[in-house]
Amino acid sequence: MSDAEIIAPATAFETEAAVTDYILAQEDKDQLRFLTCGSVDDGKSTLIGRLLYDTKLIFEDQLAALEKDSRRHGTVGEDIDLALLVDGLEAEREQGITIDVAYRFFATEKRKFIVADTPGHEQYTRNMATGASTADLAVLLVDARNGLMVQTRRHAFIASLLGIRHVVLAINKIDLVDYSQERFEAIKAEFETFAASFEFETQQAIPMSARFGDNVTGKSDKLAWFQGPTLLEHLETVKIGEEELSQPFRLPVQWVNRPNLDFRGYSGTIAGGTVSVGEELVVAASGKTSKVEKIITPEGERNSARAGEAVTVTLVDEIDISRGDLLASSVSRPDVADQLAAHLIWMSDDAMLPGRSYLMKIGSKTVTATVTEIKHKVNVNTFEHVAGKQLQLNEIGFCNLSMSVPVAFDPYEVNRQTGSFILIDRVTNATVGAGMVWFALRRATNIHWQALDVDKSARAHGLGQTPAVLWFTGLSGSGKSTIASMVEKKLHMEGRHTYALDGDNVRHGLNRDLGFTDADRVENIRRVGEVAKLFVDAGLITLTSFISPFQAERQMARELVGEGEFIEIFVDTPIEECKKRDPKGLYEKAEKGEIKNFTGIDSPYERPENAEVVLKTVGRDPEDIAEEVIEYLRANNYLVSPVFVDEGSGI
């Protein structure tokens, strides 16, 4: 009898009631998030396809499309290629590999599942880390013919680093080794030795054939020697989520809910522990405390809530709380610091450079952050610690980071949500790194700004000018230093107080220890930016002449000073003209390979996109160009007349 024949006699009410009952039954089930990972061609996509197929979650039109695609793209002869259920990208189907992270949902009578199919290729390791960041369990596939591969070991290490405490060693394609128990036991023993230090809470090895369904959702007579569970049985019964409830209460505030003057709630998803009405909470950063007045959920008011639930909390007292703050248990508070140590997985083609400014998103808070030091890199093949000055794509390092303001967090091993963060490129807005907090660096917390009686405004008032940084940037030979020098002479003749920082000059002293690699260029500009900030604080008009090839570092220097105190001046000279002006022959040497990391040749220059002043230099007299800068300063009130104050006025 078909499903249609079964449903046909039912009334509309009975059908609607059945649907409602089904939905309510699904809501009562707990949920397991897991990922499949491992080396290329170990059968990850096929395994997920088998789970979807066997749990009858494929519609007829999908099955028809799958049969058609199997004839076109399939790799299993006349059989249906179940991997194509997951390899949704056309590029993946053509190449036979999984590129992006593909998420699928399925359910059984006992549990709901969200599964992430992650790439096997080394260059897509960052995608695997993305899938692992929210997973409770990892299914690590191994081709029974090949055993543990380098990428298998890498994925196991990353899974452990990202806090996954449950792992299944799925020894797949066992049919291709004649269902050999001896081969299964050998791979299992090798993995147990290899993963002994990873602190997995559960570690289940299962022999299987994803293509034919052996030991995936049902037992196989061909594997009668194996007395353990099938993969689906294990996924349905493994215990997860208990550690989240035992954690201290944490609620990252995502939204301050203020619909009217009589209501002020703090909304977000509980990241750990439980909370009850009347419980005392603390705003982690400020230390202010209050008691819970109400807990509001989508279903209405409740007396308590737990990890994973979206809630709005109201407090008895009116205290200052905004998006990005962390509400926490007052008896078990998180760390609050502006420096921390963390494992960092680098996810960008552009190298991570210490000293470069990034955006850090931790919880619902976004701050400016800098990697101040790479303590060591981790060789993911041998797990030994190696020295390094930068991180390349897919590399993992243990780093110190400094944030612009103190932030609240927990160590990652205590809470994966409040102990993790991402780094974002400030220019492209791309996610470039994922971090796991290990501990706070407390040694810097006793360093505070010293209050001074004479401040910047007082110094500037006395000098009769508006302090600013005139940041000249452009290629080598563009005329930066020449124009900056002329501008300073003109300002000096007007009685202005200035100081010039030139790229060549500072490398004889302040930056004599730096070379010309990208990392050294970043540090060069960081130091100059800090010195320029001090001169601006002294009330001076500060002129800096540096190639400063990277937009991120120029932005960092801009943000060191106040609004309106940074004037970016792009000396826009074409590289062909710069080569003509090159008396030292540096461009010629760079093109011959005699000079490495030369900007414009084998090191990039990122043109300013929104410079306050753009100077076209070709065919123009340098003095006229310098006067253009002076006119900009006059027009924008940087050159106000000196103010003489009557001593008896009391000012």
The helicity comes to 25-40%
Task: Give the total of domains.
Answer: 4
CATH superfamily of the largest domain: P-loop containing nucleotide triphosphate hydrolases
Distance between the termini: 97 Å
Residue windows where pLDDT falls under 50 for at least 5 positions: 1-13, 89-99, 642-651
Instruction: Output the CATH topology of the largest domain.
Output: Rossmann fold
- Number of helices in the DSSP assignment: 18
Instruction: Report the average pLDDT across residues.
Output: 82
Given the C-alpha coordinates, what overall shape results?
A: globular
CATH class type of the largest domain = Alpha Beta
* Strand segment count: 28
Gyration radius, to the nearest Å?
31 Å
- Label the structural class: alpha/beta
- Percentage of residues in strands: 25-35%
Main sheet: strands, sense, barrel: 8 strands, antiparallel
* Annotated CATH architecture of the largest domain: 3-Layer(aba) Sandwich
